[in-house]
Amino acid sequence: MADLTTNFIGIKSPNPFWLASAPPTDKEYNVRRAFEAGWGGVVWKTLGSEGPPVVNVNGPRYGAIWGADRRLLGLNNIELITDRPLEVNLREIKSVKRDWKDRAMIISLMVPCDEESWKDILKRIEDTEADGVELNFGCPHGMAERGMGSAVGQVPEYIEMVTRWVKQHSRMPCIVKLTPNISDIRKPAEAAKRGGADAVSLINTINSITSVNLDSFSPEPMIDGKGTHGGYCGPAVKPIALNMVAEIARSEATRGLPISGIGGVTTWRDAAEFMALGAGNVQVCTAAMTYGFKIVEEMISGLSQYMDEKGMTSTADLVGRAVPNVTDWQFLNLNYVTKARIDQDACIGCGRCFAACEDTSHQAISMSEDRVFEVMDDECVACNLCVNVCPVEDCITMVELPKGAVDERTGKKVADFANWTTHPNNPSVTAAE
Amino acid sequence: MSNTPLTPGIVSGRLVPEAYAHNFDDLEPVLDGHEAHVAADRCYFCHDAPCITACPTSIDIPLFIRQIATGTPEAAAKTIWDQNILGGMCARVCPTEELCEEACVREAAEGKPVEIGRLQRFATDRVMDKGVHPFTRAPATGKRVAVVGAGPAGLACAHRLAMHGHDVVVMDRRAKPGGLNEYGIASYKAPHGFAQREVEWLLQIGGITVQTGVELGRDVTLDALRADYDAVFLGIGLGGVNALRAAGEDLSNVRDAVDFIEELRQQPDKSKLGIGRDVVVIGGGMTAVDAAVQSRLLGAQNVTIVYRRGQEKMSASAHEQTHAQQVGVRIICNAAPVEVIGAGGAVSAVEFAYTEDGPEGLKLLADIFTLKADQVFKAIGQTLVAPDGLSGAKLDATPLARVWTGGDCAMGGEDLTVTAVAEGRDAAEAIHANLMGAVG
Ligand SMILES: Cc1cc2nc3c(=O)[nH]c(=O)nc-3n(C[C@H](O)[C@H](O)[C@H](O)COP(=O)(O)OP(=O)(O)OC[C@H]3O[C@@H](n4cnc5c(N)ncnc54)[C@H](O)[C@@H]3O)c2cc1C
Ligand SMILES: Cc1cc2nc3c(=O)[nH]c(=O)nc-3n(C[C@H](O)[C@H](O)[C@H](O)COP(=O)(O)O)c2cc1C
Ligand code: SF4
Ligand code: SF4
Ligand code: SF4
């Protein structure tokens, strides 16, 4: 069986599955049970400064979107950082870590944006024997209004400054957690790197309103007739998170910076995808909140099986494997020509491909009296929409035209690799001539 | 309780009281909201959907299912009723496995169609339970139409005519409107007085007067109707039954299945109904299956359907046959009755000959067997009783000016509630076009 142990910025854990800083890691009771269930590590629910703890709302703090069978697809929350006293959390962290030395114990922190506050909190956690800290620059609600969380995470200079303080006043490995509520994720990642961060983790939650109650006209979750934006997470955010992870992994300035991948990880497959795009490990919140701690068993068995099948002996063999294949649009091969092919034996005659292509794409699918659907190669631009809307898996596939074959749509032969950078329609090419 | 399923002869009260309540309740209860959402989510919203083509009333199935999926069963019900005003009954009685659900692409894909019938019931029940009737009448046209027969065909015709602003008088010889919805359909398909509730709901449109106990040919003539009304619609169903043409047919306790079913439907307390211990049902259609199943549900010990041709020729759907077998009905195919044997004036057994179905028709073989029977139901097909000077195996009104026909009695009728509704509705449109054309 593949070896799942990971060494992430010097922090060892028996597998790459950590619980993200969130309700599942808010107290000793949870974390002990998580470790018993098999989780490789936890990032403790974010701690604030000493003094009266924050308060949470006392009405609903989560909102959700569901599939038809109530499968939870996206979750949104307006919860704040831990609302338990600092001393209690510190005592519990120390107690758990003492009993679970092989598991990763990271402490998430969020304190006001001044050096004293950071210096102070770092000193207070030293004694817990935790393995590292994660700086929460991501929380999009409640704390940002107080100049913390994503209010810091949206300003690269602040990220750099705070990270530097942390590295100055602590010897612990430092992970900077990034907010996705910015336009270019590479900027905060670069700032973290400049400040001396050992790693970044991403994504935190996305500003969102999950739904609007059309009777009371309030956003959900509703508190006394009002609602506010919350942080979106769960399966729905995975594609956004994957892209952001990939951007950092392949960017010149941040290449090689360790990444802890977060955002919609629900199965071993999600985890493997994050890792292939450069994440050294993953963090999970919504999936655990939806199904409980036991899901880690499936993640462990699934990832092991996959790695065995691929002949990978350690997670390092997987991490970053897909990064070289992430590129920019202008470098894609414009002479890669495919055509949609319908497997008539698999086709059930629903006509969705026809409706989609006829009404919204390229009128490249014909429909006969007796409901036979066929692709017309002279119209098909290979957009893939029919593949995406067809309810039968592998019924429509994209078949590559071999080099030299004639594309009936353009009448041209499939030529050698060429991309936009050399395309005659590209104005910058013409300008260069 | 003195009687049991083993008590010989025709007796009532073979079962404990709770068993009757259970046996004659909804066979397939309505979906709840969540089940409906899950079921609706399975629909692919097909282009030019094959299920629509397969529905005799052409309900826009993908649209109504999508309306359920998006939380608006009211809109869904309206979509259904736009095409089929008896969508509530049809949702309960249509052999969907041979109609819309057979055509559903998910039947082809995985042998598990979208549950169109149950979704249809979900939507229509929701709105009917609220007493909402979402149709109104066009301004009055001053035209009057007589509809003879208050079955599905007549009711669908009447509703559509009333909607177009005509005044309608519906006449039926029976005591209650509804036709076979009230007197024929198996009890467990539409329990709790659904047929009457649906008629009442349908009449909310206004402009329809129902006269029961009025028989065409006895109380009123076709000529009089043609003289008094601007148009006449005949939806009188099939009032007669085929004879067995076997010796001993006249022995007591040999009965038409439709009569038995009618009595059963009209008896609110099923424990009062007598049923034999050994029941033999002769026939292969829906009527035979319903008589047999309900005999079992009343506590008959042995119930056997005997059909003269092969199982594949039975007009009862495979689903109906399976249901019959599940409740313990035995089905014997390729056998025809040669003699009903009596003892003391009442039936005691039936003798059958095996048959062979060849190109020259059905041949009786020498191979004979006998089934013990204290009650026999004949279900070998209904026939038209053409009233008042009309004739033929099915009515053809084309030669008569301003007379239209539809449903079981008409050419093209299919012995299906939903077909009767379609034909009634289409006749109403034809009448409307005719009447308004005549005005303009
Ligand atoms: C036992 C049984 C079970 C069935 N089960 C199903 C089923 O599960 N699903 C399904 O789709 N179909 C079923 N059918 C068939 C379905 O009931 C009929 O196809 C449908 O009712 C036909 O409608 P209709 O309006 O043409 O006729 P009917 O429903 O027969 O209505 C005709 C009406 O006309 C009246 N009438 C007749 N003669 C006169 C007259 N001279 N004057 C005044 N009124 C008159 C009658 O009293 C009756 O009310 C079943 C039929 C039977 C007999
Ligand atoms: C294939 C595709 C191409 C699109 N192209 C454009 C575009 O050229 N310009 C634009 O403003 N938005 C474009 N959009 C975005 C859509 O207009 C729309 O904002 C987005 O899909 C969100 O709407 P939705 O609710 O339908 O998903 C495109 C969307 C798709 C799916
Ligand atoms: S999840 Fe638990 S704590 Fe939250 S509302 Fe439900 S019962 Fe209460
Ligand atoms: S979408 Fe797929 S199954 Fe449906 S008609 Fe097209 S090819 Fe066939
Ligand atoms: S055929 Fe089936 S899947 Fe397609 S629209 Fe009809 S019910 Fe939906």
Structural class of chain A: alpha/beta
* Total individual domains of chain B: 3
Query: Approximately how much beta-strand content do the residues of chain B carry?
Result: 15-25%
Which CATH architecture of the largest domain in chain B?
3-Layer(bba) Sandwich
CATH topology descriptor of the largest domain in chain B: FAD/NAD(P)-binding domain
Distance between the termini of chain B: 70 Å
Q: What kind of sheet is the major sheet of chain A?
A: 8 strands, parallel, barrel
How much β-strand is present in the residues of chain A? Answer: 15-25%
The CATH superfamily title of the largest domain in chain B: FAD/NAD(P)-binding domain
Q: Strand order, biggest sheet of chain A? A: 3-4-7-8-9-10-15-16
Shape of chain A: globular
Give the uncertain stretches of chain A in residue-range form. Answer: none
CATH class value of the largest domain in chain A: Alpha Beta
Ligands present? flavin-adenine dinucleotide, flavin mononucleotide, iron/sulfur cluster
Count of distinct structural domains of chain A? 2
Helical segment tally of chain B?
17
Q: Kindly state the mean pLDDT of chain B as a whole number?
A: 95
So what's the overall shape of chain B?
globular
Describe this structure in words.
The complex is a heterodimer of chains A (433) and B (440). Chain A has 433 residues and is α/β, with parallel strands linked by helices. Chain A has two domains: 6-325, TIM Barrel, CATH 3.20.20.70; 329-432, Alpha-Beta Plaits (2-Layer Sandwich). Helices cover 29% and strands 21% of the residues of chain A. Chain A contains 13 helices and 22 strands. In chain A, the strands form seven sheets. Chain A has an eight-stranded parallel barrel with strand order 3-4-7-8-9-10-15-16, surrounded by seven helices. A four-stranded antiparallel beta sheet of chain A has the order 5-6-14-11, with no helix packed on it. In chain A, a hairpin with a 2-residue loop joins strand 1 and strand 2. In chain A, helix 3 (115-126) packs across helix 5 (156-169), helix 5 (156-169) runs parallel beside helix 6 and helix 8 (268-276) packs across helix 10 (295-309). The longest helix of chain A is centred in the C-terminal third of the chain and has 15 residues, at 295-309. The model of chain A has no long low-confidence stretch (mean pLDDT 94). With 440 residues, chain B is an alpha/beta fold. Chain B folds into three domains: 10-24 and 241-381, FAD/NAD(P)-binding domain (3-Layer(bba) Sandwich), CATH 3.50.50; 33-128, Alpha-helical ferredoxin (Fumarate Reductase Iron-sulfur Protein, Chain B, domain 2, Orthogonal Bundle), CATH 1.10.1060; 144-239 and 384-439, FAD/NAD(P)-binding domain. Helices cover 36% and strands 18% of the residues of chain B. Chain B has helices spanning 17-23, 33-41, 50-54, 61-69, 73-83, 87-93, 100-103, 105-110, 116-129, 152-163, 180-183, 194-203, 222-228, 257-266, 286-297, 318-326, 417-439; strands spanning 144-148, 167-172, 208-212, 231-234, 240-241, 254-256, 278-282, 302-306, 330-332, 335-343, 346-358, 361-372, 375-378, 382-383, 403-405. A five-stranded parallel beta sheet of chain B has the order 3-2-1-4-15, with helices on both faces. In chain B, helix 2 crosses helix 4 (61-69), helix 4 packs antiparallel against helix 5 (73-83) and helix 15 (286-297) runs parallel beside helix 16. The longest helix of chain B is centred in the last third of the chain and has 23 residues, at 417-439. The relative contact order of chain B is 0.14. Classes of the chains: A alpha/beta (433), B alpha/beta (440). One iron/sulfur cluster binds at residues 342, 347-353, 373, 390, 392, 395-396 of chain A.
